Amino acid sequence: MERNIKELISKMTLEEKAGMCSGEDFWNLKSIERLGISSVMVADGPHGLRKQAEGGDHLGIGESIKAVCFPAACATTSSFDTELVNEMGKVLGEECQAEDVSVLLGPAVNIKRSPLCGRNFEYMSEDPYLAGKMAAAYIKGVQSWDVGTSMKHFAANNQEYNRMSCSSDLSERTFREIYLPAFETAVKEAQPKTVMCSYNKINGTYSSENTYLLTDILRDEWGFEGYAVTDWGAVADRVKGIQAGLDLEMPGSGGYNDAKLVEAVKNGDLDEGLLDQAVERILKVVFSYVDHRHPEAVFDRDKDHEKAIHIETECAVLLANNGVLPLKKEAKVIYIGEYAENPRYQGGGSSHINASKITSALESAKKKGRNISYVKGFPADKDAIDEKEQAKAIEAAKNADAAVIFAGLPDVIESEGYDRKNMRLPDCQNKLIEAVAGVQQNTVIVLHNGSPIETPWADKAAAVLEMYLGGQGVGEAADRLLYGEVNPSGHLAETFPIRLEDTPSYLNFPGDGKTVDYAEGIYVGYRYYDKKNIPVRWAFGHGLSYTSFSYSNLVISADKMEDNETITVTVDVENTGNVTGKAVAQLYVSDKTGTYGRPIKELKGFSKVLLNPGEKKTVSFELSSRDFSYYNEELKDWYAPSGIYEIAIGSASDDLTAAGKITYTTQKLLPLHVTGATTLGELFKDPRTSPIVTKMMGQAGGIMSGGEEEQEQTVAALGSDKEMMEAMMTGMPLKSLISFGGPEMGAQIEEMIKLLNEQLKL
Ligand code: BGC
């Protein structure tokens, strides 16, 4: 059905238009019956439906309908599987149609700047490339059912502490390279119907009234076509919001801010055309849902529960294994830890799902007749040593073939609304793990947490299986993985540092409450650990399997590349072990041009491949100029310096076993304006100025531009060595040459500056 939205808007009163730009209540938009505009509902998200039938709150406190809690994004991103996440999105889309929800409030794609951020469990990765690809897959899945998504929280919302007012202060380059690309990729590839702005300020301006963010970048640069909505209560100045490109206010302000909009239009402070534009964007999305209802959609909770289990089996990460896993069928195993009975499977806050059912590992083991017994060992909800339980656990562990400890973070430690204070497991758990591992060499740790923890016992554990917050099927998924019914294939979407003090933002997290300085810049996650050569517990991309894989025969389609070209890289992946498994081939690009301030390597491709024992498949990746580029602030654009780049592929960021090289040539020229402070080095490097300076500088110029004869003459004359001379000249600003040359030189230099700037304008 074709709607003439503009005509509809022309029939609306000013008050109706202002009203359309805010919610009726917590979850519903307004209706205008006389114009056939019906009210639609939005609901959280992201890993299940938090539909509140009555009343509302955005804190995960009040009741919501029974729904299926899928693994949180910390887990799903570890699958490195875009098809899987797309499938999950499709299931959620159908659930939304069945429950009459027009927009699902997710995905949440903020970068994990610090492991302490309370909401990391909902976020995807420390790496923007991975987060962007997974977000796009999720959005396409949900939206395939004509249900909208709301990609959030746009942008630079990387902590919970004072999230509603604090300013995230960061450089343009850091913003462009780390905190924006996940949003960018998803907008360009999947066009989410809505984008939710964050509560915080960015360099002093609230996201909800940030023209640069909501209009210049989001719409003009990336081509976003949907509506921008506030995070719940993120409005500061409503009029400024509309002017900046913020369309919908949620949950609304009981009409207070609507009245401000009306007043501003009446007194000429707000162009009514901008209000019309916001209404048009909102109605477009409303009708894209209303006009595409799917009566065939069903919310089959049992079926979707099975899907939640399957998804989690593809996400869990086998971090360590000395061969104890998979457990043997006949082995006598003791399960320790309350999470075996009451798993921790989701985080607190607005994403909290009223789970339709929960399977625990204990229940699954019993159902399957596994040879296990169980001791609680420690409580799930607090840090308290229970001497009796601990003694029982140690005793039982001594007499078993293997002990499996179900460890994790209590609910209260990890939630929306506040950050963690440290990176530790509760002491009672660490102590028990040490004690049990001391008497039982086959001690396996199964983790339930939404963000990395310190693992002081890592060397004593025979295996570590990271389940993350794995959704309501986490127990059955753990069972299948522990006993080898499914081969683990998840890989870390974030680094596991050894200590909190090692983390990149340690000195600047969470700031003083007013501002937080992203002083580590682009060096977030592995970009930082790599560059500083800081040992980590488990590297980004790490993940083991019950089989092994090899990577060979890396072929690049060309050995040279220029701007706007693409190249193809292929590699052979082989299953070299005895069981079927899934490899995650990861491709990283390294700038070897000698350019200052670039990470050692960056993820630019990944692919999950199913391989039978002995099977070999060729995996293919496409790379574009952007994949070699950094954001150059002077150019205000992406820029790949000319020179050599390495392309390396393997199973983890610290295990890259196949590599090749390519020579890149760019025609892009960086802006240059010559002043007295410009150095000779800069002038000799730039092809536009180099010939002029070489000529004018005579002998000294010969040194810099590499003219053999002049170099020899000068070196001989000065009795100096070439490198030293070069180094000294490189850093010499033009103004300083005057001091050495006297009045004539002064005039010459001035003339030269004029000439060079004229040349640069051509
Ligand atoms: C959260 C959002 C959520 C919204 C609605 C806010 O507090 O930050 O992620 O979608 O509430 O519940």
* Major sheet characteristics: 6 strands, mixed
Strand content: 15-25%
Examine the secondary-structure arrangement and name the CATH architecture of the largest domain: Alpha-Beta Barrel
Q: What is the CATH fold-level name of the largest domain?
A: TIM Barrel
CATH class of the largest domain: Alpha Beta
Distance between the termini: 54 Å
- Averaging pLDDT over every residue, what do you get? 95
Backbone shape: globular
Please identify the structural class as seen in this structure: alpha/beta
What is the fourth-level CATH superfamily of the largest domain?
Answer: Glycoside hydrolase, family 3, N-terminal domain
Number of domains: 4
Share of helical residues: 25-40%
Taking strands numbered 1, 2, ... along the chain, how are they ordered across the largest sheet? 10-16-15-14-11-13
DSSP summary: helix tally: 22
**C-alpha Rg (nearest Å):** 29 Å
Low-confidence spans: 699-706
For the secondary structure, the number of strands is 29
- Heterogens: beta-D-glucopyranose
Q: Could you characterize the architecture of this molecule?
A:
The chain has 762 residues and is of the alpha/beta class. The protein has four domains: 40-290, Glycoside hydrolase, family 3, N-terminal domain (TIM Barrel); 304-538, 3-Layer(aba) Sandwich (Rossmann fold), CATH 3.40.50.1700; 549-665, Immunoglobulin-like; 680-761, no CATH class. Helices cover 33% and strands 19% of the residues. The protein is built from 22 helices and 29 strands. A six-stranded mixed beta sheet has the order 10-16-15-14-11-13, with helices on both faces. It has a five-stranded parallel beta sheet with strand order 1-3-4-6-9. Strand 3, helix 5 and strand 4 form a beta-alpha-beta unit. The longest helix has 28 residues, at 734-761. Residues 699-706 have low confidence and may be disordered.
